Amino acid sequence: MKVIIAAGTPGAGKTAVLLNTIKQVRKQHQVAVVKIDCLYTEDHIRFFSIGVPALLGLSKDMCPDHYTIFNTGEMIEFAEKHKAEMLVIETAGLCHRCAPYTSNSLGVCVIDATTGPNTPLKVGPFLSTANTVVITKGDVISQAEREIFRERVLEMNPSCRIIEANGLTGKGATELAACFEDAAEFSYDEERLRHNAPFSICTLCVGETRVHQQFHRGVIRHLNGVQEYLGE
Amino acid sequence: MIQSISILAGKNKVGLAERFSEIHIDAGEIIGIVGPTGSGKSALIEDIEQLAQRDTTSSRQILLNGKVPDADLRFDPKKKLVAQLSQNMNFLADMTVDEFLRLHAKCRGKDSLLSEKVIYYANSLTGEPIRKDMNLTVLSGGQSRSLMVADVAFISDSPVVLIDEIENAGIKKHEALELLSGNGKIILVVTHDPVLALLTQRRLVMRKGGVEKILTTTEDEKRLSVYLNQVDRELFTIREQVRHGEEISLEASSVASVTENIIG
């Protein structure tokens, strides 16, 4: 099975781009989709409506990327049940610190060009470790800004394939479909993350709500950049 | 260098072969693309942009200089063939005109002094002067479009320029096309504005996802184009007079044809 993991900033157009691409891919392959979000989404219904088996996962109190990684096996089972040759996982990806891509999946980063030329420098590993970077909404900014944005993406990820897409018209879908086809075979037993998740485990992660610094323990980092372990 | 692009026929949305075998376009040529919404204009442009090799829904093939292009031309984003200009585009970057143009020039590996040249030529297309210390986000539609045209002419390397519906842009259209084609670029204009459409040498008529026919601009149309361009220029002048709070005089020499037709 081929596994495609799509990450991107909220509202960048991940679902629209994936819908257009899946419409092309499913002419030749059985596709299943898993949509991960944090609290609420109706996006999975959009996948149902084009006739693709789709599963929704809400991460609630768990970090959505960690949730995606933890549940990879269950998602594969879902895809196998539907005899899918391709599993597309749309992640929620919010803090930009994790990258959910694994060694043999196709990592697709969807990024919105209207968020300004510094965005590629801010978003971290989900851009820098992606195989394919899909730039959306380029049709509403000038050619010059598109070229600056593209250059910044390449600064962060020199070997990526860039696709300029439009979720509304379907532009870029054929190109992205070709990338799906070229993805490697996924092997659940052997997969590893391309980029480690953050080290910082602190008391906030396990439910602390008090703000004062005296109540916090764990691997923490100060405003001045000093990182330390507080605790026993 | 790209001297020409060729479009080899594919099929339309209902699977019928397009009724031409090859459309050959030379550098410096201006080609119109016309047809209603959904007729396949965007797909045609996308084929050119992606250098389709019978692998898109239209099955068209695009050749460069008469040959199948190298794979790296297709996939290296820095070598993208098509630069685009459209009515919907805005400048969103929060910086001055000069800072922005220098940044763009740097990204393209060009001399940052090009900024001055771009501003100079942009000012030849718009009635409202653009200064280099202005913030991009305060530019009017006409100023933005002029700057985009001049930027594409001198900083973007793309040999093909796609102009999509810029009829109400408030810029000197004829001069804008001349500036772009003068730099040896192939220009594709998607438009139903007769001023622009008749300035082209040929028009591709789209229907049901395919090229239905190819019209070569006739002598009659060329004469009409000269007249329409004059009208367009006069409209531009009057618009600037209105903008500057002037009273419009019918006797003014700048609006000769209006004067002729209204007061005889």
UniProtKB/TrEMBL annotation, chain A:
Chain ranges of the CobW/HypB/UreG nucleotide-binding domain? 3-163
In terms of superkingdom, the source organism counts as Bacteria
Q: Which Pfam families match?
A: cobW
**By its UniProt entry, which InterPro entries does this protein fall under?**
CobW/HypB/UreG_nucleotide-bd, Hyd_mat_HypB, P-loop_NTPase
Q: Which GO terms describe its molecular function?
A: GTPase activity; nickel cation binding; zinc ion binding
Give a GO biological-process term.
protein maturation
PANTHER family, per database record: COBW_HYPB_UREG NUCLEOTIDE-BINDING DOMAIN-CONTAINING PROTEIN, HYDROGENASE PROTEIN ASSEMBLY PROTEIN, NICKEL CHAPERONE
Q: This protein is called what?
A: Ni2+-binding GTPase involved in regulation of expression and maturation of urease and hydrogenase
TrEMBL record, chain B:
Which keywords does this chain's UniProt record carry?
A: ATP-binding, Lipoprotein, Nucleotide-binding, Transport
Q: Which PROSITE patterns match?
A: ABC_TRANSPORTER_2
Occurrences of domain ABC transporter (ranges): 2-233
InterPro entries listed in its UniProt record: AAA+_ATPase, ABC_transporter-like_ATP-bd, P-loop_NTPase
Q: Does the keyword field hold Nucleotide-binding?
A: yes
Could you say which protein family the record assigns here?
A: Belongs to the ABC transporter superfamily.
PANTHER family per record? OSMOPROTECTANT IMPORT ATP-BINDING PROTEIN OSMV (PTHR43117:SF4)
**Under which name does UniProt file this protein?**
ABC-type lipoprotein export system, ATPase component
Identify the species of origin.
Answer: Sunxiuqinia elliptica
